[in-house]
Design a protein that fits this description.
Layout: E1 6-10, E2 14-19, E3 22-27, E4 33-38, E5 51-54, E6 65-70, E7 82-88, E8 100-107, E9 132-138, E10 145-149, H1 151-159, E11 167-170, E12 183-186, E13 198-202, H2 220-230, H3 239-242, H4 252-262
Antiparallel strand pairs: 1-2, 2-3, 3-13, 4-6, 5-12, 6-11, 7-10, 7-13, 8-9, 8-11
């Protein structure tokens, strides 16, 4: 993506900036609200920890973690073409068991205090109704910064159909954890501001999802470009155009979907938030 203009606004406690019509809201340690709940240390609070992780509840030991995160939406737009939740993931190089897990975002149903909440005092979470997922993670990995399309969740928060107590991140898969794959990310308490969680708001400019080269058409050239990005031969793909199934990542499935659409074959898993 070309950066035509950058405007940086430093508020008292957070950073907001825009580029090419987008707007990013990235809370700092004073305005951010995120923590983890640790099953093995159920009375410990982690509200000031600079990195946090989620992990399925193990059946061979007492490991298992839940991430809680919440954004103050009061000053944020009511309407946006798309909204992405961004995390910077920590890499993991080894694993002995539970080396592939599926993670989900769940609705938190009641208020919680970042600096007081523990596993034993966790808020009510609706684990029966995931709002996003699965996010399949494997080891070894080095995912870096990934964005997850939470447009529908954000709109529900803003219109009041879903009360905003934030999201819980967790894997329900179970099994035995031994250096298992975690959803491990930097929190708003991380010293390096670029690694903190953020919301990115896409402007009302038209997004032609699948048109990776921006020529106004979706064809096999776009599929090939996205395939190269999926296998790390090209790092210049725009996630808005390339992530056609809106799972927050660019992978070979996106390339296959674009190839199918280019020859008018059905693409039932094409992102349901694509602009009309």
């Amino acid at each position: 993506m070309k950066f035509f203009m950058t405007i940086v606004t430093l508020t008292m406690f957070s950073i907001s900036y825009s580029f090419a019509g987008d707007f990013i809201y990235q809370p700092d340690p004073d305005t951010g609200k995120d923590t983890m709940l640790n099953r093995s240390s159920p009375d410990q609070n982690y509200g000031a920890r600079p990195n946090i992780y989620a992990l399925t509840a193990s059946n061979c030991n007492d490991s298992g973690n839940i991430i809680l995160i919440q954004f103050d939406l009061s000053s944020l737009p009511n309407n946006s073409k798309e909204v992405y939740l961004g995390f910077t993931h920590l890499p993991k190089s080894y694993c002995y068991s539970n080396c592939q897990l599926n993670y989900y975002f769940y609705p938190v149903l009641e208020a919680w205090d970042e600096m007081k909440v523990t596993y034993n005092t966790k808020p009510d979470i609706d684990f029966n109704k995931p709002l996003f997922g699965p996010i399949t993670l494997t080891v070894p990995n080095d995912y870096g910064t990934k964005e997850y399309n939470i447009t529908n969740i954000y709109r529900a928060w803003k219109d009041g159909s879903l009360e905003n107590h934030g999201l819980a991140i967790y894997s329900p898969d179970g099994g035995c954890n031994n250096a298992a794959v975690t959803f491990s990310v930097y929190s708003s308490d991380e010293d390096n501001a670029t690694r903190r969680p953020y919301l990115r708001f896409v402007s009302d400019a038209v997004i032609n999802r699948g048109d990776q080269n921006g020529d106004g058409q979706i064809n096999i050239v776009d599929a090939l470009l996205v395939a190269r990005c999926a296998v790390k031969l090209n790092n210049n793909c725009s996630i808005e155009q390339a992530d056609v199934d809106c799972n927050g990542a660019i992978n070979i499935i996106d390339a296959l979907l674009i190839a199918r659409r280019s020859v008018n074959l059905p693409t039932p898993t094409w992102c349901n938030t694509v602009p009309k």
